[in-house]
Amino acid sequence: MIYQSVNQLIGNTPLLELKLPVPNNSHIFAKLEMFNPGGSIKDRLGVALIAAGIQQGKIRANTTIIEPTAGNTGIGVALAAQQHHLPVILVVPEKFSFEKQTLMKALGATIVNTPSAAGIKGAIAKAEKLAAATPNSFIPMQFKNPANPQAYYDTLGPELTADLGSKIDAFVAGAGSGGTFAGVAKYLQEQLSQIKSYPVEPEGSILNGGPEHGHRTEGIGVEFIPPFFKNIHIEQIYTISDDAAFTNVSLLAREHGLLVGSSSGAALAASLQVAEQLPAGSNIVTIFPDSSERYLSEDIYTV
Ligand code: MET
Fold first, then answer.
1. Which atom, in ligand 1's list, is nearest to the CA of 72?
2. How far is 137 from 114, CA to CA, in rounded Å?
3. Which residues are identified as catalytic?
4. Which of 18, 112, 154, 228 has the greatest number of beta carbons closer than 10 A?
5. Where would you find the membrane-spanning parts of this chain (predicted)?
6. Which stretches within the chain are classed as H helix?
7. Which of 142, 180, 223 to mutate to test the pocket of ligand 1 (most atoms within 8 A of CB)?
8. Is 126 in the pocket of ligand 1 (CB under 6 A)?
């Protein structure tokens, strides 16, 4: 097949069974989202946010798109906005990786940095200020736009059941905006009544009650409960240390040939803990959102 646009390369990523020792002889399958053209799971979200904005009449020719992001959503939004020749301003706390910020700029976006200490809330507030001062602008706002979970409900969820049928016992995924977790969990819970769903956060995030502090694990972690979690059945929340996440990142590279980012390391740590709770031979599906290559400047392979 000869593809005609980068958009056609988004989604339908491979599902890999990890050949590592899993407690209770269970199986862990990882959805390899670094195979999307922008290098992360958030390409799915970028196209969905821009399409929803256009459909709702909130994005017209020359609308300036403004979005707060840790980087990957910004890359996805920049990629999608480029197809429509829309200007993009991405508001990024300065702590997020140099590589992601470079890629957003390469795709044509303008970056506005906010202080790391103000967190993602600081980036959201700055985006709102910029939008108020920019005529003809629109913030898709991944943190509350229903198009966020919907993008994953529509694409990633069905891809998992297409690959595994009804043989999925548990779904484990990191939460930042919470869109991936909530959208896929909703889809799977509708299809498979017995499935158990587990969100993953780094230590420093507040889902399990805190305490709130900075962390090296990037792209996941929340400062407020995602509104998308309403009506999703959550079995248990896993809070993973940076050490555990980065140890897995190194292990996955050294022993399994997988070059993944720290949120993937955290997802694997949680999946292994889930395996301890579940009956023998369970099938656990998790998500590896991006690649380690966008974190080399942060010494991702140094635990
Ligand atoms: N992963 C999303 C983004 O890249 C949300 C991050 S919130 C820590 O924007």
1. 4
2. 19
3. 42, 263
4. 228
5. none
6. 42-55, 72-83, 98-106, 119-133, 147-154, 156-164, 179-191, 242-256, 262-277
7. 142
8. no
Q: Establish whether residue 64 lines the binding site of ligand 1, counting it when its CB lies within 6 angstroms of any ligand atom.
A: no
From the CB of 284, is ligand 1 less than 6 Å away? no
Domain boundaries along the sequence of the chain: 6-36+146-298, 42-138
**Residue 78 — left, alpha, or beta (φ > 0 → left; ψ -120 to 50 → alpha)?**
alpha
pLDDT of residue 178: 98
Cα separation, 35 vs 29, in Å, equals 16
pLDDT value, residue 276: 98
Q: Give the model confidence (pLDDT) of 5-14 as tens digits.
A: 999 999 999 9
Alpha carbon of 62 to ligand 1 centroid (Å):
25
Beta carbon of 71 within 6 Å of any ligand 1 atom = yes
End-to-end CA distance of the chain: 42
Q: How far is CA 303 from the centre of its chain?
A: 22
Complex prediction ipTM: 0.95
CA of 74 to the centre of ligand 1 (A): 9
- β-bridge partners, 67: 90
Q: Residues in the chain with pLDDT < 50?
A: none
**For residue 42, what pLDDT is reported?**
98
Distance 68 CA to ligand 1 centre (A): 8
**For domain 42-138, which CATH number applies: 3.40.50.620, 3.90.740.10, 3.40.50.1100, 3.40.50.2000?**
3.40.50.1100
Residue 132 is predicted with a pLDDT of: 98
